[in-house]
Amino acid sequence: MKYKRILLKLSGESLMGKKQFGIDHERLSEYAEQIKEISEMGIQVAVVIGGGNIFRGIQAAEGGMDRVQGDYMGMLATVINSMALQSALEAIKVETRLQSAIKMEQICEHFIRRRAVRHLEKHRVVIFGAGTGNPYFTTDTAATLRAIEIEADIILKGTRVDGIYTADPEKDKTATKYETITFSEVYEKGLEIMDMTAFTLCNENKLPIIIFDMNKPGNLKRIIEGNKVGTLVEF
């Protein structure tokens, strides 16, 4: 296998499926099956999910709410999504552990790096909730930070598009897809892949990223098998 340990980043919005809000259980089950598929191949899997399908702190701040308060509410939304994914995985007999950056003893473990790594070594899927535990940081940054801490080989960012394009493919039909692109080129072209803090952390720690369409069943397995799926951001 090309990768031994991966961190899968999912957006909260992707969990909505065809709904306008909340969690589409059909989509959640599809994701759980894809994660199970690669876990059974011997891959160590960690997951970070956003909370935008439930609450986005930055939007609350735009509406006049205190930004810090809004961000903490967003972190709690990620925990709800994480619990939902944990439940979906356990329903199909995948052993999981949920770790939160905010202490919630009745619900999950508190994030401890060594414990997380040990779970991964025992081939449990580890889900990291509550972002970094700090306001003003996105779940992209949380995903990057956790990936570096657990020494993941790569970040796989599942989105609704199949990679990075020269322009937004949903708005510009002439947009062309990059098969591979360097971190330097992303900076130069001003492409928006993830927030700049997260992207810079990846660059500084030589952590590659693959942007791919998670909604196409089998894509996750194809990446693990070494097939070209999505866009690889490398050095």
Distinctive features:
37% helix; Carbamate kinase; alpha/beta; 235 residues
Instruction: Give me the count of strands.
Output: 11
The succession of helices and strands, N to C, reads EHEHHEEHEHEEEEHHEHE
The CATH superfamily is identified as Acetylglutamate kinase-like
The CATH class: Alpha Beta
Order of neighbouring strands in the sheet with most strands: 4-3-5-2-1-6-10-11-9
- Alpha-carbon Rg, integer: 17 Å
| CATH topology call | Carbamate kinase
End-to-end distance, in Å? 21 Å
What is the total number of structural domains?
1
Instruction: Estimate the strand proportion.
Output: 15-25%
Low-confidence stretches: none
Q: Sheet with the most strands?
A: 9 strands, mixed
Estimate percent helicity.
25-40%
Which whole number gives the mean pLDDT?
Answer: 94
Backbone structural class: alpha/beta
Overview of the structural elements:
The chain is an alpha/beta fold and 235 residues long. The strands form two sheets. A nine-stranded mixed beta sheet has the order 4-3-5-2-1-6-10-11-9, sandwiched between helices. A two-stranded antiparallel ribbon has the order 7-8. Strand 1, helix 1 and strand 2 form a beta-alpha-beta unit. The relative contact order is 0.16. The model has no long low-confidence stretch (mean pLDDT 94).
